[in-house]
Specification:
The complex is a heterodimer.
Chain A: H1 14-48, H2 51-65, H3 69-79, H4 89-114, H5 118-126, H6 131-161, H7 173-184, H8 187-217
Helix pairs in contact in A: 1-2, 1-4, 1-6, 1-7, 2-4, 3-4, 4-6, 5-6, 6-8, 7-8
Chain B: H1 6-42, H2 47-62, H3 65-75, H4 85-110, H5 114-122, H6 127-158, H7 169-180, H8 183-215
Helix pairs in contact in B: 1-4, 1-6, 1-7, 1-8, 2-4, 3-4, 4-6, 5-6, 6-8, 7-8
Classes of the chains: A mainly alpha, B mainly alpha.
C-alpha cells in the first residue's frame, strides 16, 4: 500500500489552526507571567519566610516537580470537582500551567536568591532600606539576572508541555490538530505541520525571551 | 456499577506501575545508546555529521513530546506499517530522550579542558581513542548528576504514552476513574505513586550535585 502525502488537505482548516495557535500563545504568556509571580513569592517565602511557610512551599515544589503535568491537569480538572471546585477546561488549563510553572520557577529563583552575596544585603540594610526594598532592589534583581537563562528554558519547556491541555479539550493547537485529523484522516500531514508550528513557536519564544532579557533583566 | 474497594484500586495501580517502570527503562537505556552515538557525531568536528545531528536535536527538543507520539502512532500507520502503542511509545520516548541526553552530555564533554584534547592528539590518538580513554572518563564524572536528574523527566514523560492507549500508570488511573467515579482518590494515588518513583531520583541527583561542588 502506498500513501501519498497531501499537505493541501490542511488548507481548509487554517482557521482552526490559527485559533489553536492563538490559544497556545495566550496560555503560555499568561501562565508565564502569573507563574513567575508565584515563583517569586514562593522563592522569597522559602528563603526569608518563617519555617512553617517555607515547609509548605517546599512540599508544593517537590510534589509538582516529581509528578507528570498530565496527572496534575487531570487532578485539577477531574479531581477537584469532588471537593466542590468545578473549573471549565480553559480555566483548568490555565490553573494547571500556573501551578506547574510556579513550582519550577520557585526552585529556579530560589537558587538565584541564595547566590546573592551576604554583604550586598548588609550593605542595603546599612543604607536604611526596608526589608522589602532590599528584596526588591538588591536580592531579586541580581537573582533574576543570574537565573534568567534557566528560567527561559523552563518557559519553553512549559510551552511545549501545554500540548497536553488538549486532553481535557482546552482548545489549544494540539486540540486543533486532533480535530482536523478526525475530519480529513490526514494524521501524518497534520501532526507533522503542527509539530513544525510548535518548533517555530519555540524558536520565536527563545528569541523573544533573549531580547527581553537583554533589555530588562541584565544587571549592567 | 461494580463495587471497587480502595484495595482493588491500589492493587491495579501498582500493577500498572510496572509498565511505567519498564517503559521508562526502555526509553532511558535506548535513549542512552542513541544519545551516545549522537554525542560522537555531534562532537566529531565533521561538518556534514554535525548539521543533521543538530537538526535532529532541535526537532526533538523543540516540539512537544505528545506531537512526537502522535506522529509515530497515527502518522506512521498511514504508510502501511502496523504500529502498536508499545512500539510508538517506546520509539518516540527513546528518540526524545536521546536528544536531551546528547545535549546534556555534550555540555559535559565541552567542560573538559581543551588541553586534554590537545595532549591526547599529540600522542597520536584517534578521535575515538581520545573520547574513549581521555575525554569520556572525565566527562562522565560531571554527567552523572544531570543524567540522573533527567531520568525523572523520562518517567514523567511516559505518562503521555497513556494518550495513545498504552496502559501504564496514568492510563490505569483514567480507566479506574471511569469505573469508580472517584477521581479525587484515584488521581491522588496516581500522583503519589509517581512521586514515590521520582522523588528518590531527584533527591539523589541533588546530592550528587552537591558532592561534586565540594570536590571542585
Amino acid at each position: 500500500m502506498t500513501y501519498h502525502l497531501e499537505f493541501s488537505a490542511l488548507l481548509p482548516y487554517w482557521q482552526d489552526l490559527a485559533w489553536g495557535l492563538l490559544f497556545t500563545i495566550v496560555l503560555t504568556v499568561v501562565s508565564t507571567a502569573v507563574g513567575i509571580a508565584v515563583g517569586t513569592l514562593g522563592a522569597s517565602a522559602r528563603t526569608f519566610g518563617p519555617a512553617w511557610l517555607s515547609g509548605i512551599v517546599r512540599v508544593y515544589v517537590e510534589l509538582i516537580r516529581n509528578t507528570p503535568f498530565i496527572v496534575q491537569l487531570f487532578f485539577i480538572f477531574f479531581g477537584l470537582p469532588a471537593l466542590g471546585l468545578r473549573l471549565t477546561e480553559t480555566t483548568a488549563a490555565f490553573v494547571a500551567m500556573v501551578v506547574n510553572l510556579g513550582a519550577y520557577s520557585t526552585e529556579i529563583i530560589r537558587a538565584g536568591i541564595e547566590a546573592t552575596p551576604k554583604g550586598h544585603i548588609e550593605a542595603g540594610v546599612s543604607l536604611a532600606m526596608s526589608r522589602l526594598e532590599v528584596l526588591r532592589y538588591i536580592v531579586l534583581r541580581q537573582a533574576f539576572a543570574k537565573i534568567y537563562p534557566a528560567l527561559s528554558s523552563q518557559i519553553v519547556i512549559v510551552m511545549l508541555g501545554s500540548a497536553v491541555v488538549s486532553q481535557i479539550s482546552a482548545p489549544d493547537l494540539t486540540y486543533a490538530a486532533n480535530f482536523i485529523q478526525s475530519r480529513n484522516f490526514r494524521a501524518f500531514e497534520v501532526y507533522f505541520v503542527v509539530a513544525l508550528i510548535y518548533l517555530v513557536l519555540a524558536i520565536v519564544l527563545r528569541y523573544v525571551l533573549r531580547v527581553i532579557g537583554d533589555r530588562f533583566v541584565k544587571v549592567s | 456499577m461494580s463495587d471497587f474497594s480502595l484495595w482493588i484500586i491500589v492493587k491495579n495501580l501498582i500493577w500498572a506501575t510496572q509498565w511505567t517502570v519498564i517503559l521508562s527503562l526502555i526509553a532511558f537505556v535506548g535513549g542512552g545508546i542513541v544519545g551516545m552515538i549522537l554525542l560522537f557525531l555531534r562532537t566529531s568536528q565533521v561538518k556534514w555529521l554535525e548539521v543533521p545531528t543538530k537538526l535532529y536535536i532541535e526537532f526533538f527538543q523543540g516540539t512537544p513530546l505528545l506531537m512526537q507520539l502522535f506522529l509515530f502512532f497515527f502518522g506512521v500507520a498511514l504508510f502501511g506499517i502496523e504500529v502498536s502503542p508499545w512500539m510508538a511509545a517506546g520509539l518516540a520516548l527513546t528518540l526524545w530522550t536521546s536528544a536531551f541526553l546528547t545535549e546534556i552530555w555534550r555540555g559535559c564533554v565541552e567542560a573538559v579542558p581543551k588541553g586534554q584534547w590537545e595532549a591526547s592528539a599529540s600522542v597520536a590518538m584517534s578521535y575515538i581513542e581520545q573520547m574513549r580513554y581521555v575525554i569520556l572518563p572525565q566527562a562522565m564524572r560531571i554527567a552523572i548528576a544531570p543524567t540522573v536528574g533527567f531520568s525523572v523527566q523520562v518517567i514523567k514523560g511516559t505518562a503521555l504514552a497513556s494518550i495513545i492507549g498504552f496502559v501504564e500508570l496514568t492510563k490505569a488511573g483514567t480507566m479506574l476513574n471511569n469505573a469508580t467515579f472517584r477521581p479525587f482518590l484515584v488521581y491522588s494515588l496516581v500522583a503519589l505513586i509517581y512521586f514515590c518513583l521520582c522523588f528518590p531520583l531527584s533527591w539523589f541527583a541533588k546530592r550528587l550535585e552537591g558532592r561534586l561542588n565540594v570536590a571542585r
